[in-house]
């Protein structure tokens, strides 16, 4: 993948764009995602690149996100239209495509789907989803829970475990999953497997 921007340069670009705490989170996600990518026989570089870039558009305004996604031809759900921040991954994927180089589709799909998840996010997307939830800078998990998730034998089991935790949290807060997240939850409950 010699057409891709050098990782060190990419990290520098992201660092200039994000608040320090968000950059530290992104570095943590990149580390965990690359470890998961290696563990599940994917390209370690894929984990690094998607992890460091996944929140690139996190500080875009709602109007900037919607404008970028419409211009980029992103399929926008009703829920995303109502809460454009749910599309920050889609906007980040569009930016990555423009500035990083010849990015594999799997990178873009993973970044696009890291917020709500998707039955079509693939193995790399599952690695990113799990890494975003479990990276060590996240305060909603203690080390025991983090290890419990990361010790599960498959990405499907890890994502399902996270969704079970999120479902409980949402219920306590009187919230519900987005349609795409419900679809993912049911897919995994039914034994669905992510594509490679």
Description of the molecule:
This protein is mainly α and 196 residues long. It has a single domain (7-189), classed as Orthogonal Bundle (Hypothetical protein af1432). Helices cover 65% and strands 0% of the residues. The chain starts with 6 loop residues before the first helix and ends in a 7-residue tail after the last helix. The relative contact order is 0.13. It catalyses: P(1),P(4)-bis(5'-adenosyl) tetraphosphate + H2O = 2 ADP + 2 H(+). Residues 18-146 form the HD/PDEase domain. GO terms for molecular function: bis(5'-nucleosyl)-tetraphosphatase (symmetrical) activity; metal ion binding; nucleotide binding. Its EC number is 3.6.1.41. It is an enzyme of class 3 (hydrolase).
Q: Tell me the overall shape.
A: globular
Residue share in β-strands: under 5%
CATH class: Mainly Alpha
What CATH architecture do you see?
Orthogonal Bundle
Radius of gyration: 16 Å
Would you tell me the structural class of the helices and strands? mainly alpha
CATH superfamily: Hypothetical protein af1432
- What's the CATH topology label? Hypothetical protein af1432
* Termini Cα gap: 18 Å
Low-confidence stretches: none
Number of domains: 1
The number of E-state strands comes to: 0
Largest sheet: none
Order of helices and strands: HHHHHHHHHHH
Number of helices: 11
The helix content is 55-70%
Residue-averaged pLDDT, rounded?
96
